[in-house]
Amino acid sequence: MEIFGPTIQGEGMVVGQKTMFVRTAGCDYSCSWCDSSFTWDGSGKHLIVQMTAEEIWSELKRLGGSGFSFVTISGGNPALLRNLDALIAILKENNIKIGVETQGSRWQEWLYDIDELTISPKPPSSGMTTDFSVLSDIFEKLNNQNNEQHTSLKIVVFNQVDYDYAKQVHLRYPTIPFYLQTGNDDITTTDNPQLISRLLGKYQELIDWVIEDEELRDVKVLPQLHALVWGNKRGV
Ligand SMILES: C[S@@+](CC[C@H](N)C(=O)[O-])C[C@H]1O[C@@H](n2cnc3c(N)ncnc32)[C@H](O)[C@@H]1O
Ligand SMILES: Nc1nc2[nH]cc(C(=O)O)c2c(=O)[nH]1
Ligand code: SF4
Ligand SMILES: [Mg+2]
User: Fold this and answer.
1) Looking at the DSSP assignment, which residues form a beta bridge with residue 73?
2) N or C: which end of the chain has fewer CB within 10 A?
3) What's the number of domains the chain is made of?
4) Residue ranges of the Radical SAM core domain (predicted)?
5) How many CA atoms lie within 13 A of 42 on its CB side?
6) Ligand 1 atom with least separation from CA of 34
7) Angle of CA points 169, 172, 177, to nearest 5°
8) In this structure, what CATH number is given to the domain that contains residue 188?
9) 23 CB within 6 A, ligand 1
């Protein structure tokens, strides 16, 4: 649905990493606050292009030249697409490191081949319900693989109920590197100074909760860095 970059990864375990993005269409969720809802709510239908893996690779090179070594695949939910294996094979052949963003609701065999895999289960404010049997199954598969791959959990927090949910997830999977991310509750504004100051306030609030919480120790707290730099701009 979108191919863009080079930019920086604004979220999670490899925040700051120079990367290209490939964004797939379609999601099995419909989060109330989704900042990429055009991938699944019909509003971005005209942007959907069926592409072969070779065509995606050509477009990445057209945009990024030889100036990138990392590609992040997001969506929508990229884990809906079994055939992404062909793209992943091409990226590997070309020594490109691969990141994936998914919510942990679906398994694909190619998840074994992702260098930096972010699993982002959704808290109550999203309106979605986590199927913990699917999530546990994903972690079990990845754990048995035991290779060079890195997996992390990243949970977006909008309120205290979300925070409690995030803690429960962390306690369930204590060995998975755990990230909390500030929720953006104004995903349409173009008033960047106002949005940025609001998001920084929310980030500060989330940090304060963690500082005061003796039960939550091994955690990293991050904002969406791209939102602080570019606001709600798409394709960055
Ligand atoms: C758009 S999603 C696409 C990948 C996948 N469907 C998922 O949710 O993980 C990419 C990341 O953006 C996060 N996200 C979406 N809307 C957000 C918002 N309003 N504020 C903060 N993070 C948001 C998601 O939680 C997810 O971690
Ligand atoms: N710069 C930048 N970083 C991101 N990290 C996750 C993103 C996403 O939408 O999945 C994203 C995005 O859209 N842009
Ligand atoms: S799972 Fe991801 S892409 Fe799907 S609706 Fe939620 S935030 Fe948006
Ligand atoms: Mg995004």
Assistant:
1) 22, 100
2) C
3) 1
4) 14-232
5) 0
6) 16
7) 70
8) 3.20.20.70
9) no
Segments forming the whole domain that contains residue 75: 2-230
Q: Is 111 in the pocket of ligand 3 (CB under 6 A)?
A: no
CA separation for the pair 12, 151 (Å, rounded):
11
In-domain check, residue 141:
yes
Residue 123 is assigned to a ligand binding site: no
Give the ipTM of the model, two decimals please: 0.99
The answer to the question of residue 208 being in a domain is: yes
CA–centroid distance, 141 to ligand 2, in Å, is 26
Residue 93 lies in a domain: yes
Q: Is 110 exposed, middle or buried (0-12, 13-18, 19+ CB in 10 A)?
A: buried
Q: What is the pLDDT of residues 101-127, one digit of tens each?
A: 999 999 999 999 999 999 999 999 999
Amino acid at the residue 111: L
Residue 194, helix vs strand vs coil? helix
Model confidence over 114-173: pLDDT tens digits? 999 999 999 999 999 999 999 999 999 999 986 789 999 999 999 999 999 999 999 999
Ligand 1 in reach of 36 Cβ (< 6 A) = yes
